[in-house]
Amino acid sequence: MPFDEFVKWALYDGQTGYYSTARKRIGKQAECDFYTSSTLHPIWGELVVEACVTLLGQHNPADFVFVEIAAEPNDSVLNSITHPFGKHQIIRLGDPVKMPKQAIAYSNEWLDAQPFKRFRFSKESKGWKEIYVLKEKDQLVEIEQPIHPNDENSLPKNGKAGDIFDWPCGARHALRKMLAFNSWSGVFLTFDYGLTREVLLRDRPQGTARAYHRQKMETNLLSRPSEQDLTCHLCWEDLEECLEEENFRSIGVKNQESFLLSHSSKRIRQAFEEKLGPHDPKMQALKEILHPAHLGHSLHALWGVRE
Predict the structure, then answer these.
(1) Which of 96, 163, 168, 269 could be disulfide-bonded to 205 (CB atoms 3.0-4.6 Å)?
(2) Radius of gyration of the chain from Cα atoms?
(3) Whole-number Å distance between alpha carbons of 88 and 178
(4) What average pLDDT score do residues 146-175 get?
(5) pLDDT of residue 299
(6) Residue 25 has what pLDDT?
């Protein structure tokens, strides 16, 4: 099967998929596979709320439904937080996409959990081949197949033997489906891992795909199918184009630190005015969210507004 179909099966199969089965995936505990900003309650939710209100500008938050996409079971960014929105709606795995007419669509590491294609530059043919996954003697192995003509324009022009290129095709499909539903108006805001198209094409010859299992990054994407997370970096220009095509304006991409400092400055200032000690849990969480050595620079915010 093509690699994107393998990723879709491994992550979302209704019976065995990584995200479909009951397990503790996100957190700092040793049995979890990774952690992200949403782990850092409640300060993360408070920052997100202020950022969304800032993006709404002069609009009344009470007129909008806060739609949280792909939240983990029994979890929510708004848990134990007072917010100004009219309603709160959560779309979890398997739920139908139903966007209200006026909405704030928020997600954290949703789009990088979508299927992606893999390509390898072949030494023999001196050209790009698409990577497929084959079951051979009870093992999963990679095989190379000819690329589809439509994929040629998306691949690096100057490949070298052994180069790998990962293309997040599923992210664009998922985003367009959500944006187009019901022609809703309001704010789209997501936090995720991504790079510019130029960097993806020029500076990542070994690709960006990786797996996470028990707080460790794995390079063997075929090991532990359905037991480890699979992900790759997004292409920001590709997603910005989706927003533009759906008539979103005021579109932007910034690293998480810069975005929150400009859109959630009031809550950040309050945290420092509380004069919390450096080892206070809330201050520690804030540092992890903002500091460049932690999540501040590795994660980015992508946003847009549609009237």
Answers:
(1) 163
(2) 20
(3) 17
(4) 91
(5) 96
(6) 86
Which CATH fold would you assign to the domain 35-114+172-193+233-307? Rossmann fold (3.40.50)
Residues in the chain: 307
CB of 287 within 8 A of CB of 272?
no
CB atoms within 10 A of CB 89: 17
- CB burial of residue 273 (10 Å; 0-12, 13-18, 19+): exposed
* Beta bridge partners of residue 190, listed in sequence order: 107, 302
Q: Which two tokens stand for residue 211?
A: 């797996």
Q: Is the pLDDT reported for residue 153 higher than 80? A: no
Q: How far apart are the first and last CA of the chain?
A: 41
Task: Name the nearest CA neighbour of 205 among 120, 265, 144.
Answer: 120
Average pLDDT over every residue of 169-182: 93
- Whether 277 has a pLDDT exceeding 80, the answer reads no
How confident is residue 250, by pLDDT bands cut at 50, 70 and 90?
very high
Nearest to 63 by CA among 100, 90, 93: 100
Q: Residue 134: count other Cβ atoms within 10 Å of its Cβ.
A: 12
Q: Where, residue-wise, is CATH 3.40.50.12710 in the chain?
A: 35-114+172-193+233-307
When pLDDT is cut at 50, 70 and 90, the band that residue 74 belongs to is confident
Three-state SS letters, 240-300 = HHHHHHCCCEEEEEEEHHHHHHHHCHHHHHHHHHCCCCCCCHHHHHHHHHHCCCCCCCCCE
Q: Are 157 and 221 in contact (CB under 8 A)?
A: no
Contacts of 212 (CB under 8 A, 6+ apart): 33, 34, 218, 228, 229, 231
pLDDT of 99 above 90: yes
